[in-house]
Amino acid sequence: MTKTWSTPPQEALRVGPGFDLAALDASSHPGWEHGRSSAENKLEADGNRLSEVQERLYAHGRTGGSRAVLLVLQGMDTSGKGGIVRHVLGMVDPQGVQLRSFGVPTEKERSQHYLQRIREALPVGGRIGVFDRSHYEDVLVVRVNELVPREVWEPRYDEINAFEREVVDAGTVVVKVMLHVSPEEQKARLRERLERPDKYWKYNPNDVDERARWPAYREAYQAVLDRTSTEHAPWFVVPADSKWYARLAVGALVLDAVESLGLDWPPADFDVEAEKARLDAQPF
Amino acid sequence: MTKTWSTPPQEALRVGPGFDLAALDASSHPGWEHGRSSAENKLEADGNRLSEVQERLYAHGRTGGSRAVLLVLQGMDTSGKGGIVRHVLGMVDPQGVQLRSFGVPTEKERSQHYLQRIREALPVGGRIGVFDRSHYEDVLVVRVNELVPREVWEPRYDEINAFEREVVDAGTVVVKVMLHVSPEEQKARLRERLERPDKYWKYNPNDVDERARWPAYREAYQAVLDRTSTEHAPWFVVPADSKWYARLAVGALVLDAVESLGLDWPPADFDVEAEKARLDAQPF
């Protein structure tokens, strides 16, 4: 039998008042008391279920429905965002996934409001949208590196909450995930990228510079979690030193989000019997 | 041991001079002398290989490379285009796939040259682009339903060849696939959509009207194959009454296309040893 959670991740990992990022062990497995192979079995089972409910969501979108899911992925370099996309979102029909990676803004993007490129990438009805990095970079890398003065980034937390309120009111379930990797594990993963020629392409010398600012990033993440984990769009902090745990947890969070929509197959908007007769009447 | 092709699909299914669509049995399995379960094993093996070479292609794109693959999928309703996306492209990392479905042009698209929306959707370097329907609709549905006069659609074959020449010259391997389903199998698949409430959403009454124009569509497809199966961007006609065969064949064609790029892992554009030293020197 497939083993399951002792506490579901939507409870065990949710950021509430008083959450302390520095106190969370990145190698822990909250809510999961079994090992890796049980987790892999559970993820496979969740993937099959996700594939089913995702098809219902897609059908809903194809028949004019506006409900959607948005997964926001944040985390330091090497925290495993790409692996989540590959191994979790890879379990569902590519037609149903709308993926967008946010890098350094282009010149055009810089000339616009920072939420403009985010708005343009929101999932359309019926899709699971995935943001690999997001508008949160505008209060993370931007704050840590002082790319704009405090009076510019400070109001953004409230703006982001208001923006996400709009998104949720329009029918999208927003799931925000921070993949939490320890500095030690990050160092080991960067080392691996430098040791394996098939991983060189993932390495960027700037990652080491950013790493030096770890304490400032932790502070900036803590501020994000304190100020933007709302009732309508909560944060989940996923310990990510064990990749298998992070994938299991994010898979469960996405599945829960799609299931929470409670969608059934859309009814026929045509006369089924009349269409059968029309089809049968054709000579071939 | 995994069974394999007697003739590889890139030979067995390629459209050359004198190809006659009406003479091709949609339930045949050219080049494959084994059954369904051997085909499923082979597709899984091909999928693992595809996942590997696709990652090299993606790495190439991430380091500034411009090579790409474009899979163009055409076929009548129910021919299985969506299933190809789900089961074949679903085997690779969603980050590496750039999928675009072309429906009835929007008002804005209608005001532009018919190739404009196609150009905008071409895969960027490092991606496998997939067109679910394409610019070929502008010489298929448009021709069959006389949406524009002959003097407008007639020159399009040459325009399309010239356009695809540009795409290929820019570094993209173009694989054009027509999924060939028989009228009998199509009728059975439409019937199933009318019998299963979980499939109603896939049914469109217009499909039955289009079906009545089958002979005209066959003629229009024959013209496409006669006039646009070029050396640089050949067509492959895949018998699609057996879904397992169609998926096997398209999987093999896509794998061959990515492998034909002959890409290796990109070299480091930084000093590996210096970076190791920099990383090791950090206190955490």
UniProtKB/TrEMBL annotation, chains A, B:
The keyword Flavoprotein does not apply. Residues 26-45 are annotated as: Disordered. SUPFAM superfamilies: P-loop containing nucleoside triphosphate hydrolases (SSF52540). Gene3D superfamilies: P-loop containing nucleotide triphosphate hydrolases. Keywords: Kinase, Transferase. Residues 38-259 form the Polyphosphate kinase-2-related domain. The keyword Transferase applies. Residues 31-45 have a biased composition (Basic and acidic residues). Pfam families: PPK2. GO terms for molecular function: polyphosphate kinase activity. GO terms for biological process: polyphosphate metabolic process. This is Polyphosphate kinase-2-related domain-containing protein. It comes from Cellulomonas xylanilytica. The lineage of its organism: Bacteria, Bacillati, Actinomycetota, Actinomycetes, Micrococcales.
